[in-house]
Amino acid sequence: MATQIDDLDRQIxxxxxxxxxxxxxxxxxxxxxxxxxxxKRLRRLENExxxxxxxxxINRRKLGYRMLCYIHISIKTHSSDELKKFREMLKEMxxxxxxxxxxxxxxxVVKVAIRDEADLENFILNKITPVPGVxxxxxxxxxxxxxxxxxxPVHIDQKI
Length: 160
Description:
It is a single chain. The chain is an alpha+beta fold. The protein has 2 domains: 7-47, Winged helix-like DNA-binding domain superfamily/Winged helix DNA-binding domain (Arc Repressor Mutant, subunit A), CATH 1.10.10; 61-141, Lrp/AsnC effector binding domain/regulation of amino acid metabolism (RAM) domain (Alpha-Beta Plaits, 2-Layer Sandwich). 36% of the residues lie in helices and 19% in strands. The chain contains 5 helices and 4 strands. The chain has helices at 7-18, 24-31, 35-47, 80-92, 117-128, and strands spanning 67-75, 96-101, 108-114, 134-141. A 4-stranded antiparallel β-sheet has the order 2-3-1-4. Helix 2 (24-31) packs across helix 3.
């Protein structure tokens, strides 16, 4: 069970989500706490699931992924077995950056990084549409990313 977090914990969360490579000594200095106490708090935040991991943000274009798409998918039937298989299949596709089960006209919104038009065609025709239960696919190409962040607002006056 997670404990209540305080202002120092919020400061830690705010700092490490902006710089996951910060040293414990630097973090301790920023929050005016001893390195040992800072390390203990950081480990507790990790163990309680407030911090799920540390990631490097990779420039997809440098690796040749010039296209970013949102693919909206509808499923014919919503049996738990079919949905579970579909979700597991999407998790295994390296092109899929994110997938959300949504309300509205479609059941899923899938964010994919694709190299070019041929890869997009291959992804849709050979990976998505052949899946049993898929009834409709609609693709939106991203023209420009306006904001692509992972930082959550962690306010000191906010109670969790």
